[in-house]
Amino acid sequence: xxxxxxxxxxxxxxxxxxxxxxxxxxxxxxxxxxxxxxxxxxxxxxxxxxxxxxxxxxxxxxxxxxxxxxxxxxxxxxxxxxxxxxxxxxxxxxxxxxxxxxxxxxxxxxxxxxxxxxxxxxxxxxxxxxxxxxxxxxxxxxxxxxxxxxxxxxxxxxxxxxxxxxxxxxxxxxxxxxxxxxxxxxxxxxxxxxxxxxxxxxxxxxxxxxxxxxxxxxxxxxxxxxxxxxxxxxxxxxxxxxxxxxxxxxxxxxxxxxxxxxxxxxxxxxxxxxxxxxxxxxxxxxxxxxxxxxxxxxxxxxxxxxxxxxxxxxxxxxxxxxxxxxxxxxxxxxxxxxxxxxxxxxxxxxxxxxxxxxxxxxxxxxxx
Length: 368
Fold this sequence. Notes:
mainly alpha, two-stranded antiparallel ribbon, 2 strands, 2% strand
C-alpha cells in the first residue's frame, strides 16, 4: 500500500513537472517593461533685464558718434538713381544694385558676384545695409569711407570696368536730367558733374540704408521682443566671447580681426588686409562683417565658402574662440542671430527709380 502511494505521488509529480514545462514552452515570451525616460527639464527662462544690461555694454551706439556729413535730400535722391544706373559700367549692364540687391538685404547671395563680361572677383560682395557704421569698407578695409568705396567698383576691370573718371563724367554729363540733378545736389561747385560728386551722392544714399530689428527693440527695453531662446542665444553670444569681434551698432564692422585667431584657418590663401597695407602683421586679417541680417546674407566669409549659418557658427567657435560648441548652444546662437534680421527701408526708397534716357552724346555700351 505504501509502495503504491509513493509510486502515485512520484507519477503525479512528474506529470505536473511536464505540464509546467509544456505550459512554459507554449506561453508567449513576456515583454520587458518599457524604460521610463525622464523628461528633460525645460531651460530656465533667462533674466531678460539682466541679459539686456549685459548686451547694452557691447551693442549700444557710442555716446558721442562722429557727425555724419550734411547729406541733402537732393544728394540722396541722386545717389539712389546712381545706385541703380547700369550706364556707370562699361557695357551698360552692371549697376551697384547688381551685386548689392537692395530688395535682398544688400547682397546677391552668390559666393562671388559677376561683373563685366561675367567675370568673377575673388571676394564675396558684402551687404551695403548698415555699412555707414563700419570702420572701413571692403574686406581688406582699403577704402576709409563710403565715398572712397563708391568710386572703386566703377573703375575695377572685373566689376564695372569703366576705363577712367573721364568716361564716367562724360556719360553723366551727356544726360540732361543728370546735369540738372547734380547742380541741385552740389550747388556750390563750379563743376558739379564729377566722379567725386557721384561717389558723394552714392554715399549719402547708402547712409540711409539701415535695418532696425527686434534686437534694437529689446535693447530699448521691450524685453518681449526676443523669445526666451533668442535671449539665451544673446547671453551665450556675449559670454562665449563672440563680442570680441562682433560689437557696436552694426554688431560687427568696427575692427579688423585675424581669421583663425586661435587655430589656423584651413586652406586660407587670401592675404586679407595685407593686400591694402603691405604690412606683414596684417596678413590674414579682415574687416569683421556686420551680423545684422546675417540670416539673409549668405553665403559667408570673404570667399563665400560657407553656405549655412549653423556651420558658420561652429567654425567661428572653433577657429576664433577655441570652442567646440554643442548642438544646443548652436541652436540658441542661431536663434539670436536670426533676431538681427531687420526691416528693409520702404520700397519708394530702395526700388529702382525711373532713369533718364541716353542721348546721342552718351558713350555706347562697350563689351570689350
